[in-house]
Structures are given as structure tokens and as C-alpha cells.
Amino acid sequence: MNKQTSWLDKRRGQVKHWGQALEQRMMAAQWRSASVDMLSFAFEPLWGAKQIPARVDAVEAEEGATHIWLRPSLRWAWPKPGQFVSVSAQHDGEVVTRCYSLSALDAANDRIRLTVCSVNDGLFSNNIAPQLAVGTVLKLSPATGDFVAPKHAAPLWLCAAGSGITPMLPLAEAALAQGQAVRLLAVQREAQPVLWQEWLALQQRYPQLLRCELWCSAEQGRPQIQDFSDRLNALPNNVEVFVCGNSGFRDSLQQAVQNAGLPMAQLHMESFYQTNTAPAVMDSADVVAKVSLSDGREIPVREGETILQAAKSAGVAMTHCCGQGVCRSCETRKVSGVVENLQTGLKQLRDGEWILPCVSLPMGNVELAV
Ligand code: FES
What's the CATH code, domain 287-368? Predict the structure, then answer.
């Protein structure tokens, strides 16, 4: 009896402790969410729709990249490994938006990491990211993209060129934690590419499961289809192949997968890339429609132009990232008018519905709430 009573007391004490710990965690989370929202309040008018505030928690420099740790508001849905976000920052009174893959998901601390690789003349990578102060509030789109592991367990072959290595780390970590074998082929110009030390540390942690191969293109040249085929043929037939890199790299790997006779469903390619910022060249200069913005500005649209292309041609800044209808960072509410979505071929007729200006062709005059 005494023994049972003391067992019950102990269980009650444990439950009370867990309850208190949970309550404290929730209060901290609510405070954090509220404080992030309050911090962003002052900037609210400049941000795009559907973006969520995220506070800069740390900024780490590495040769060739800046790592930004962010604590998003709790309203932000936790991402899947391999997904990307668009992030907006204020710079010289303008909102600058870019898309980046998530290079780390720290669920225990509610933090995510963006790895911003340096590019020539990159405004975000060279001027904004390295200057970010801890506590700065940025805005994030919902995490998106289907560059994610399938639900069934399978070995992974991760093939990355250049900055394509950034989404691979969370994919590898998730697979390794479930006991799945992972092979990495990193094609990089440098002998010590971005994030490489983390890959080596991961390999030490999972020596039986993870093997990393660095192909240094400065010394070895570009890998050929046969190089990919040789590696693929040594892997099991149920391997899931993940490819992130430039179009030539993706095409070569697609060919290697075809040559190996693997189902295309086992090939996952990250086709997202930054849009060309140059105005589109059109055959006809005839204006066929106009897009009105809430501030009274009007954008002339020529035959065959999307709303985003027309805005660029007119020198009107419009939040966007991929330019392909993938990231949804351009999503805008249409007050009136009809557009054709070039991806789906469907006409969007209803007033007040959300459209993607980067893939929307106006079918007459259109009014946007932006
Ligand atoms: S810019 Fe990415 S969906 Fe429009």
C-alpha cells in the first residue's frame, strides 16, 4: 500500500513537472512570437502579403557564404527538409526579396538557417546578409517546394553543384537519423566548399551510412554523364536521386538516371532558380491592357507579357523571387479583371482572388491590391 502510494505520488509529481515545463515553454514561445510580431509592426506597410516575421538570431560568416539563423514567429509552419523560402529585408528604403534553401532545421530551438552563397554583384549576398544585426526582423514566405524525401525509406544519392549543396544537409540529416544510407556527390569549384566541414562532421557521426565525395571542378573539370552513370550503377535500384545545380548538371544527371533504367519518379530535381531581372524583349510594343495598383500607378502591358514582366519593363518594383510560379512570393490579390494562369491554362475570373503575377497574363485591364 505504502509502496503504491509513493509510486502514485511520484507519478503525480512527474506529471506536474511536465505540465509546468510545458507551460513555461508555451509562455516563452508566445512571448517570442509576440515580440517578433511587435518588432516587425513598424515595418508592416512595406512587406508583402502572407509573409511572416522572423528575428535574426545569429549571423555566421564562412568563406563564400553567410549563414543566417532565424527564429520565425510561431505562426510560420515548420518546413520539411529540402524546402526553400523567400526572405525579404529592408535595404535603402526598399524591400529586397530573395529565395534561399534552408540549410539547417533546428527544431529543438525553433530556429532555421539560410545559407546565402556569395554571387557577383549580389545585393543580398554581398550587401545585406553580411551586415544583418542580431535582432533584425526579416520576413519569410511559407516554406515551399517538393524537393523533399519520399515517405518510404530508401537510400538517397544527393548530387549538388555549387550552391545546390545547401538544401542537401537537412535531407541527409533526416534520412540518416532514420538509418537510411546517404551518398553525397558535391561538384564544387573550391577544394573547401561552403558547408563542407559540416558534411565531414556528419560523416564522422554516421560512418556506416554516409559517404561524401567532393568533385573539385577546378582540378577535375566538369563531370560527364559517364561519371554520374558509374556512381549510379554502384547504388541499389531503389535509390532516390536528388539533384540541385545548374541546368547542364541537371540534364546530365537526368540522362544518367534514364540510362540506368530507373523510374523517373526516383529522380527529384530542384528546378528553382533566380529569375532574370532584365526586362523581357517583346515582338510588339502595342499596349493591350493596363494593370492598376492601389497607389494609383498604372502599368502598361504588351502582347504576351505577364504582369511581372510588364512591371519590370515599366520600372515598377514588385516582390518576386523565382519568376516561375514556384515560390509564391509574388502572390497578390486581384481586385478586378481577368488573368490567365500560364501554368494551369485556367482563367482567373473572380474578383478578390489571389494570383501569381509572374505567370499571369492579363486578359484586359486588371486592378491589383498592391
Ligand atoms: S515569383 Fe515565385 S511564384 Fe511568382
Answer: 3.10.20.30
